[in-house]
Model the fold of this input.
Amino acid sequence: MTARAEQVLVDLGQRSYTVYIAPDLLWDQSSSGLTPLTRFVQGKKALLVTDSNVSGLYAGQVLSVLQAAGTLSAECHTIPAGEEEKTFATVEGICRKAAQLGLDRHSVLLSLGGGVTSDLTGFAASIYMRGIDFISIPTSLLAMIDAGIGGKTGADLPEGKNLIGTFWQPKTVLMDVNFLRSLPPSEIRCGCAELIKHAILFDAELFQLLEETIGDLLRLNDPDQTARIIARSCRHKANVVSNDEREGGRRALLNFGHSFGHAIEKLLHFRMSHGDAVSIGMVMASTLAVNLRMMKETDALRMKKLLSATCLPLNCPGLKAADILEAMRGDKKNRNGKLRLVIPRGIGKAEIQEDIPEDMILKAIGVHCD
Ligand code: GLY
Done:
């Protein structure tokens, strides 16, 4: 494996795994074939699941890498791209393909793509033959920062997003920063929203680094620096997951901006991207935090400035505050009918609050709507 790969451990006892992050991670010739893949796929049947956007770009190369790593067989299954494909029928399709190819309990499913592909493939891996090995190869920044690690798998129901799924940790996660080159700028921006989220929650220094380098990051000017920033962000997520795998407590902090954001996405019938909705949600939460005197206005301004510099939206024209609040009541993170919100206490610190008066929430939402 390339000597300059960043490594992040997700520490879960016997189910611990390492996330590798580097440009040219999968194709580096200096590796002499000793990529982390070999350990997990040698002598096994492998099924690589990818989507119709990614398939033509990278699937052939990844299949060659799998063959070079000594798989017994390596086949590809392509699912149509898009959130509307995130259904149980697609999971069944993956499992049926695995069965047709004769995958057994010792075989391995790999995902190559964004969050939808990794959620669906992880879900299939967790139920096929009562659970087989899973390896995640995220290709979007959003999947590298968020969905690619932590073991949440899932599919949507007509009744709501991610209503079915499992916790199923991968054996390893391979993040090749060069995959990001084929993404449109809007996708990089969306990944940055989750990156900024981790900085606001846990890491004031990372926030400052992003303030100084966001332009380079958006243009992917320095792949090694991009790998270091992704690794720093992943370390925070790994730390949270290691201590609260099943979201009994601290993992819920990762929902910062998401209660507002999911409501906005739902009301706009998912025509607004997740990253854009989370950006508006984080701004709403920061306005609420300032009104509650839990965050300094200067910190909220820094947040907004960084989100703007990332070309992320701060406001949500066209929606009514009361409708957003109503949609937030359906959030599956709520407890006993009470809204649970992540409130920033500054840059690098946040907490979960359950008892915020609804008129305060409505007022904060209203500042950022028509
Ligand atoms: N996407 C939030 C989490 O993994 O918990």
In short: The longest helix spans residues 223-243. The radius of gyration is 20 Å. The chain has two domains: 6-183, 250-367.
